[in-house]
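re: ur question from earlier - yeah i can do the single chain one, its not a big deal. heres the input i used so u can compare w yours
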Amino acid sequence: MGSRLAEWRLRYLPAVTVIPSARREAWLGKHELRTAIRRATGIDMIGQRDKIAAQEEDKS
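and the output i got, formated as tokens:
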């Protein structure tokens, strides 16, 4: 189910709306944005394409 869920997330959740919490800065830093996306989708945006390519290669 895990791999199927990952495929579903990549297909149907390409856009994520991130609403920063109230604090001094009105914007998110690179690390905070990456963490917010990972929490919302379960997808780590850095290196994700390489991971998918490696999984497809292993299936072949």
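Residues 2-59 form one domain. not sure if urs matches, ping me
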